[in-house]
């Protein structure tokens, strides 16, 4: 089982993405070295379509969301954490 978080982007805060991105990236790099993050990124237009992240556990997803600078600074607005029964074709 994997866990997915969909994020909306606050249009009023989107202009601050370049300012906050270095802190988000540093947090992302540090978090990923400890494991549990499988994939993360924006859709084609993050202001309109948001972004998503996939984790190995609900706990890791909750931890990431609770400390992500994009979330803390009101740029990314996380939705519910959804359990995902992904099929793998690797």
Task: Report a brief summary of the structure.
This protein is an alpha+beta fold.
Describe this structure in words.
The structure is a single chain. The radius of gyration is 13 Å and the shape is globular. It is built from 4 helices and 4 strands. It has 90 residues and is an alpha+beta fold.
Give the SSE layout.
Elements: E1 2-9, H1 17-33, E2 37-42, H2 46-49, E3 51-55, H3 58-67, H4 69-72, E4 76-84
Antiparallel strand pairs: 1-3, 1-4, 2-3
Protein traits:
single chain, 90 residues, alpha+beta, 39% helix
- What is the number of helical segments per DSSP (H or I, 4+ residues)? 4
User: How far apart are the termini?
Assistant: 16 Å
Instruction: State the total count of DSSP E strands.
Output: 4
Q: Strand sequence of the main sheet, in spatial order? A: 2-3-1-4
Structural class: alpha+beta
Round the mean pLDDT to the nearest integer and report it.
Answer: 96
Main beta-sheet strand count, sense and barrel state: 4 strands, antiparallel
Question: What are the segments in which pLDDT stays under 50 over at least 5 consecutive residues?
Answer: none
**Into which percentage range does the β-strand content fall?**
25-35%
Gyration radius over CA: 13 Å
Q: Which word captures the global form?
A: globular
SSE series: EHEHEHHE
Q: Could you estimate the helical fraction of the residues in percent?
A: 25-40%
